[in-house]
Specification:
single chain, 102 residues, mainly beta, five-stranded mixed beta sheet, 7 strands, 0% helix, elongated
Length: 102
């Protein structure tokens, strides 16, 4: 079992700025995690994290490209990895909204 935690809505002042994502790999998780965020329209990946150990978090993220102002439906996919063997242990996903203000 793997718990995931991310903001339901991530707001960016503009497409090139950071937004508060509050991504967390909770302490109770026995595995490391990586997170990707993809737009639902076209499946384009607009964010990819590095490895996140249990009890670590990423407060703010920056998108891989400058999105135009608006709201975007997206999916955040958390992939669990064994911290010793680095083998994939599972995945979980959450639907989120990316809001670009200006």
């Amino acid at each position: 079992m793997m718990n995931i935690s991310i903001a339901a809505v991530i707001t960016f002042p503009d497409g090139a700025s950071e937004g508060e994502a509050r991504i967390e790999n909770i302490a109770a998780n026995p595995m490391g995690q990586k997170v990707t965020i993809a737009l639902k329209d076209g499946d384009e990946v607009v964010y990819e994290s590095g490895a996140i150990a249990p009890d670590q978090h990423i407060q703010n993220i920056k998108l891989s490209r400058d999105l135009e102002p608006g709201e975007y439906a997206a999916v955040a996919t958390f992939t669990g990895y064994d911290r010793e063997t680095h083998k994939k242990t599972g995945q979980a996903a959450a639907e989120i909204t990316l809001r670009v203000e200006g």
